[in-house]
Design goal:
The chain is of the alpha/beta class and about 600 residues long. Helix content is about 35%, strand content about 25%. It contains 18 helices and 25 strands. An eight-stranded antiparallel β-sheet has the order 3-2-4-1-10-9-11-15, covered by helices on one side. It is globular. The relative contact order is 0.09. The structure holds fructose -6-phosphate.
Length: about 600
Amino acid sequence: MCGIVGYIGHQSAATLLLDGLQTLEYRGYDSAGIALAPGDGAFRVTRASGKLINLRNKMDAQDPATLGIGHTRWATHGRPTEENAHPHRSADGKIVAVHNGIFENFLELRKELQTLGETFSSETDTEAFPVMVSHFMKAGLGFREAFHRALGRMEGIYALACLHADDPDRLLAARSGPPLVIGLGEGETFLASDVVPLLRHTRRVIFLEDGDIAELTRTGAQISRLDGSRVERPEQHIPYDPVAAEKGGFKHFMQKEIFEQPQAISNTLLNRLPIEPGEPIPLDLPFSNEELKALQRIHIVACGTSWHAGLVGKFLIEQLARTAVEVDYASEYRYREPVIPEGTLIIGITQSGETADTLAAMKEAALRGARTLAICNVMGSTATRAAEASILTHAGPEIGVASTKAFTTQLAVLTLLALRIGEAKGTVNPAQKEELLQGLRELPAHLEHLNALEPQIMRWAQKYRDASDFLYLGRGPLYPIALEGALKLKEISYIHAEGYPAGEMKHGPIALIDKNLPVVALMPKDAHREKTLSNLQEAAARDGRILGLVTQGDHGLDGIAEDVLELPDVHPWLAPILYVLPLQLLSYHIAVLRGCDVDQPRNLAKSVTVE
Ligand code: F6R
């Protein structure tokens, strides 16, 4: 959601900022803009609604300015028009700013500034900021001091970048909420909302903390707090390969990320599986065995796909660690005054580590005394810094808006975590543990095998692309996968889809079944197989078109299902990681056939940093 880039250096800022914004497109946006500071007392500001190409077409890519800021906007206050696109300027044109977040007191500030004679030209909350800085400068403050003073008046959350037209050697930035990362180069310094735009230029980064103000120059960055005190933030090295954030021959990021799952799961498991049988799970957690043993209950909070991972996590933790788990939508949990008895661990599952609701739910639980753990894909993200402990999923950058590899790696981490807590509590049977560990080791090879089934899934996509509704059914740990399959289809192909526990079908959804409704059935050979089979016989008796996903060699759906895909025989508790992959591919290919924008579906943002 909204993206910021900034550059101060020796290269032409225009192309660099445009390319940087391009790599942030995945976050979701509906307008964009760039301000270049040539150092002659005036900015060159270009803005455009719609896709970045509109902005690119309006700009001179060879512009010699070596300082600038850019922004992709996902509309919150004010429509996605060119006038509302960032950067915003003060009326005298001397200050420009880009902003992620919301200034909650902007109406009040606007009125105050208007009374003082200042004027506004947009409907946005952001404009109050450059106008306020300019106002303080007219009163005699220098740029930096005016920036600090204006920040002191802002209520709400923000990541900000700001320039002064007469100051060609300085870019000011501030963070309170949405992330900002500084990239350090040779004679050049970069700013961005996340590390992805920085990877092409540098791996040396500094993550700003809440309340930090940064002054970027061509030789680096100085960081201070609102009260003016200086702070040092550690320089970190980002291990990702820059090509990890490129499409690399695939048509879309989503397709690439589906295909990356064997490697992603290997990376998740690297150094986290015991070498010798009987050894403890080497999952690096700051909780002692005694502390894990003392856990009375676990609350999992998350949104969307990560919430589905939480539902599988509940199943695994309750089975392996015999500890009660509640799973909540973070947006509900944060406002329902949750009861948090002593001995509660809250686990926030979040790919981005920036989802506002998940962060707030974790904070709420921490205030009520819970221990906190984040399962996250983004190193240095807010969730990993706010929680007492974090486990990184190591899926690599996920650019497609629809989550794929982040989800399966979350499931792998949850399996390890359930085993680790179960070990500490003495509830895991050693043979069962070895069987699951062996299953985890074999997963990458099984996922490779599933990727090879893409042609068959493409035929399904061709056949079912025109359906207007889909029903997904599963039981036990496959029920969340039914939900996830339905969500994937909805979000990228805009086809209505529902996921249900197969046993719940006759309590309502069975009324939907007719010859036009594809029913995607997840039926591995597990304890629920017979029950699921009889639910599917009921669906077939009502002419439902059944697409079955079954264990290799299982012919139970012959004569019942219209299409069947056979999947490798794995431990039933690892089946969610396998069964979701064909569902991702099915959604992907249906969306492509329907001409949808797969990587940036309408109205969606990759990291949802507002409520
Ligand atoms: C769906 C999807 C979203 C996210 C949700 C939470 O494909 O990607 O539903 O799962 O917005 O995001 P994170 O995991 O970043 O907290």
